[in-house]
Amino acid sequence: MTTRVQAPAREIFGWSMFDFANSSYTTVIITVVYATVFPTLIVGDARLGNLLWSATLSASYALVVLTAPLFGAIMDFSGSKKRFLMASWLLTVIATAALGLAGPGQTALAMGLLLVSNFGFASGESFASSFLPDLGPPEALGRISGMAWGLGYFGGLVSTAAVLFGLGPASPENLGAVRLIGPVTAAFFFVGAIPTFVLLRERGVAQVLPPGESYVSVGIGRIRQSMRDVRAFRDLLVFLGSLFFSQAGLSIVIAFAFIYGDQVIQWQPSTMMAMFVITQLTAACGAILFGFIQDRIGARNAYGLTMVLWIVAATLIYATPQLTVAFNSAFGTTFAAEHVFLCVGGLAGTGLGAAQSSGRALVGLFAPPEKAGEIFGLWGVMGKLAAIFGLLGLGVLQAVLGLQTAILFCAVLFAAALVVVRFVDEARGREVARTWTAATPSAEAVAP
User: Fold this and answer.
1) Does residue 209 lie in a domain region?
2) Segment 244-281, tens digit of pLDDT
3) Alpha-carbon distance 17 to 154, whole Å?
4) Sign of torsion, CA 183 189 195 199?
5) 418 lies in which domain range?
6) Residue 6 falls inside a structural domain
């Protein structure tokens, strides 16, 4: 049986700073800036660039799928979560800085560096999240996760503002500054994460390797044992099924939202900056607000509410051009589609922060601390499989149907996530996590 106590505030702050720091990568590279630079300036062909963007991110997520369960098992056995987190941090920083070497036409180099940097970033997400069950009792995890995710959006806001306002427009005429996008982002991630490694404790205790065994063989053995124990965590597994669909939808939004604004809405640079600020602020507020809501109404219900928000948001994103025409016709106004898109972006930002935070917290509730590395490794695998499915699906659909129509795929994915999560019994899943021990046979560990 596991008893969880509240960690010191300074340690929670240290852990939260990793969200602050790594948001520079996901915001600047994956969502706002490099996502538009890659297809237009590096590849030079929008539809081909979009497809290669999807394929590269999908390949990096496939590497995470292959390695995350093994890394998680080794972390738990060796008590080395901080070392794995540090390795992923340094890999991301180095590969992101090297993106400055890729110029127009150097598509293969840019793809290779993007693959490596995103692999490091995505692996680090799982490593960092595996600390969550150690930071507080179940009733506090939603609030802790929400505050950290909210801080992360402020990190994305600061880092992207530094790139957008410090380097200037992402245009061929400004290519020298554009090449600094990677190095500036890497520097922010490096400096911002230092408090994490100073303040965050490693609570895991290293176990002695049996004679003739290696960490790899022990890790594989632990994965096999976890597969035998898997029935004990059936509510976790059902939730991961829901998470597959929601993460597939969110991966599309994160990777294509600003590409959509550029290619479908055809916004001006000033509108892009306004959208960036709006989505970061609303996402931060959504993560923090839903953290408190989750602790009051339950993690499953809070997560389900975010899926409803996203079904509405994805439908409105698709319908923005039509809504603009209808609104102007009805009221005699002359609003541009980009102005309507800003309003939709506020709703989408709220759902983005809330969905990501509540999903992570619910996994934390279902994870015994002594198996957190393995379970968050499984969470990472499911999230990355979902990203592969979502990104490749969107990449193919947009090549055939166009990006505007293809974006409706997101609404379908969020609806599927909402249906599946209704089969999760949160109380039963939390009780299994509370009473689980390594010595408990899997058949006996199943809650009634």
Assistant:
1) no
2) 999 999 888 887 888 888 888 888 888 888 888 888 78
3) 11
4) negative
5) 11-202+216-445
6) no
